[in-house]
Amino acid sequence: MSTPAPATIRNALTIDVEDYFQVSAFACHIARADWPLIECRVERNIERILALLAAAGIHATFFTLGWIAERYPAMVRRIVENGHELASHGYGHQRVSSQSMAEFARDVTFSKELLEQISGCEVLGYRAPSFSIGAANLWALDTLLAAGYRYSSSIYPIRHDHYGMPDAPRFASYPNGARGVLELPISTVRLWRRNLPAGGGGYFRLLPYAVSRWFLRRINSHDGQAGIFYFHPWEIDPGQPRPAGLGARTRFRHYLNLQRMEGRLGALTRDFRWGRMDRIFLGTA
Fold this sequence. Notes:
This protein has 285 residues and is of the alpha/beta class.
């Protein structure tokens, strides 16, 4: 029988609130100007996620696009009313690496103010679209601090063809000094002298659930650390439209095992203790 996760450790469960057509991998196939013309599916998927979390008695952190919040303010308020943390995912899912310093400052300031205006609560956290903060643009963390954020979850310490900073710390750190923004990376497991992704996304759908469970238990027991897990609302929606012209790799990554995702999330909520980012890492009430 496998060893249960340490009962004293609470892991952070996070959701990146964006719709299927807004993912970076679709940017060459779906024009940003066409977004308002596409039927959104995010609201119905968020309702299912809220129901799943309520049934499990779990509070999570929702990194929400300003573009989505602007169109679904009632949904944003329901997230907060259900006891979850509201955090920023930027406004329009633009990679930080594609923005100038001034553009990024406007993006994170506007999205924070928008979310706070809609929800009536302070927004402390930010996650860069596609984990697009790395060695080349650590200045972005200073910009976040100036905009009033207290933490970021934007640097993924793995090797990936679209993002990643494999030499970055695997756990909470202050990349720009102790007075800067706290960086909280998605979880990885250190095996065979490399960091393996262990915190959700497509890897959670690709690997057998038992492997993902072992990874997270290792982080809790071997490293003695809280894990950070993420997923997207569209990942529980196997009936979502399939745009034409997608490459084989993109299709595989996006659509693999969508039909199994909700069941796996249910198992995850039963096998581990979960909470909000701000309460676990900032000690907020």
